[in-house]
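User: quick one
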Amino acid sequence: MSTLETLKNGLDATVISMPSGECRRRLEALGLREGKRVRKISGMPFCGPVTVLLDGRQIAIGHGVACRVGVAVEGAEERASAGR
Amino acid sequence: MSGCRDSKGCPGCPGSSLPPVDPKDPCDDRILLIGNPNVGKSVFFTRLTGVHAMSSNYPGTTVGFSEGRLRLPHRCFRLIDVPGAYTLDPTNEAEEVARRIIDEGAEVALIVVDATALERNLFLALQTLERGVPSVIALNMVDEARHKGIFVDVAALERELGVPVVPTVAVSGQGMREIVNRLGEARPGPFEPTDPDGRWRRIGKIVHAVQRVEHRHHTLRDRLEDLSVDRHWGGVIGALVLAFSLWSIRWVGEGLIDTLLDPLYETFWMPLLERLSGSLGGEGLLHYFLIGNLIDGAIDPEQSFGLLSTGLYVPLVMVLPYIVAFYAMLSFLEDLGYLPRLAVVFDSLLHRLGLHGYAIVPTLLGVGCNVPGILATRVLESPRERFIAATLISVAVPCASLQAMIVGSLGPWGIRYVAFVYLTLILSWVLLGRILHKALPGYSPELIVEIPPYRVPSLKGLGVKLWFRVKDFLVEAIPLVLGGVLLVDLLYMAGVIPAMAAFLSPLFRGLLGLPPEAAGPILLGFLRKDVAVGLLLPLGLTPRQMVVAVVTLAMTFPCIATFIVLWKELGGKKTAASIAIMIATALVAGGLLNLLFSLAEA
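Assistant: Done. Structure below.
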């Protein structure tokens, strides 16, 4: 499964899984949750944060959390369901 | 007979008037100003109360809360600026404060909602409405939303939420009058409390019904926003911004000193001092306190150490220009919205020091003055993080006053001596951070932060902010400097400082390579560090000794103001630990520097 961390810059994706607990609450507070569409803006080097565009707003997410947010790339999901 | 009316009565004449009835304080009703961070809440506060509250692009400046009065023709309210929050299930201290204030209840909740991020903003709005507080909603930044292609149907939103909704542009004042007019229509929303998932479902339905989004092409601003957090360009831009800031602060600060303040002092103040000195006979107790010691028969503004000479010259001529330059720059970067981007750039470094990127904000504030820097560590999540950040600021972040004196005292010998000091401080900052991160149990929390869009700062906003910060400096620093100078004079007169110097002599001579007399100034750094550098000047130190002395001074103790706020923020035990760390670090760094210098000489 792709995560925000592995997602390529500039790609749109849908969030399909979230970390649990406190991280989840803080992400939700910023509007990030399952089913939301995001576009990856960048990932900083040396395990730096990932920046995504969510509802027209940039949000920076620390590396350790970004790799726990699962995403499905637009299109890839449809291909997968068609193949099933 | 119009000239004879007794309705007012005579003060003090029995029977002539009724005793004054103690009216119920007309300002007992509360209006809460509620909203996410970065929605322009503080601008509302300023507009509605006429009191200037600080408004910034990042959360943290209003932890605690500001209160002002909103006077209407027939009514007066206490307007309370609730700290910015994303949710009332608190994820940090500011949100905890927000929840507590809202749960205390109010006449009216004025909920400020950012039209450019309606969905996310409605979460807090619905939480407030579910609590049954009578509410009015300000749909702010509608101009910005339109620009982004986001259109919100205000009438439909009003129907969905069941409370008045007013479109506003707070920065220009649009919609303010209507907000005030409709405060009386405030009513509780028609929502039963629910869990987060249920609330998000409600929000999804509402947004679907009221919002229309058109696609807009990338603007130049969007591109700049993307570049600022770009993998490669982000760091480059960050480095350029910091380098340019430093250069311009130095340029403005020095320019103000050389072309304005020093000439003013020399032309207008100096002749007065000389006349006073002459009429006091050039010596005596009063002369000692007011003018200080004559250096080679003349008053030396930096070294005489009188209340009217050094006591005014240091804060007003040497330090104030740098304070103005620094805060002008910081306020500009703040209002521009650059600081959260700097947090992204610094995150991976700070993560290795047990912090996360946002700690760069308190650190930068600390470069102005450690006190607001340490207060701002409240935006960090864990006590561990706050301890590390506060300790690192106290140890390795010199405040603007101290830096002004460092540059002023070492600069004339050559820029490389100033560079030695800064390199040592930066290195200590990184190494000490690494050590604390490894030694303290726990982990570095993750950065999760919203990055607001770039905004062109308003000159008026910047002016107000700069004025408040400079005023704080003037009000708080000048009495402390004067008190410090007075105490220094008293301690020298009483012979306390030579005694301390003798006691600490082995440490200073052996470890730091400094003459014992340097002990006095370094210990007095506890009062104010800029004054302490002034005390080092007459000792005739070599440039290298001065570097060691200044580094030790910068790192050892917090100044008294910093000490008090450390104590308040961390508690006694952690403050003691923090100070022990400071002293140890200072001695190690000063000792190594001395060793390095003596090796270089050998």
